[in-house]
# Entry
Amino acid sequence: MERSEINEIIDRAKSFLEKRQFFLPAFAHWSLEDWVANVTDVRGIVEQQLGWDITDFGSGDFASVGLFLFTLRNGTDANLTTPNAKVYAEKILIVEPGQVTPTHFHFLKMEDIINRGGGVLEVQLWNSTDSNGVDTESSVEVVCDGILKRLPAGGILPLNPGDSVCLPPRLLHKFWGKPGTGTVLVGEVSKVNDDRTDNFFPEGAGRFPVIEENVPPLHLLIPDYATYLSR
Ligand SMILES: [Fe+2]
# Structure
């Protein structure tokens, strides 16, 4: 992705979130100069991978295969075995009609995907095989707002505004905004997660974009921290 495209997506997301009265923490608005000025205080943000996260999953076509995310809170995998440590995470996502997040599962993360309003989010589900493949035969069971639902392999679960689904580790999922409905504001409440290691895409998509630096960044993305804050 070109950095100019990422900057435009951030601009559009800021307007959309403001219209929906969803506010991001102060560091979301920092310039590169602000990051450098605060560099001694940001260890927690960097370690927990908080912040802007925009990806085309390596597709080169964000509008068709892509996702906007902002990680609001998180911990590290080490927290899962540390008494009294933070074991939860929260993200806000924006999904456009027809914009696909490719099939994937998480090795450790259990996540609730919540339609926070807008259009309809469609979630397609499969069990995974022991060799991390797609099980195209066995039916899938998920809990939606306390109610157990059973779908055939590859069944599509529509989430209307207010609805959510709990996705356990290793359950394959793919989602998109239902065409003909509006942009969807999606919440994610989950176990802590490390996006560098916890995502598996059976079709081989990449979790983070390859960025062509054609203009300066408007805001740093999570994968930028290693580059820009170690200089
Ligand atoms: Fe996921």
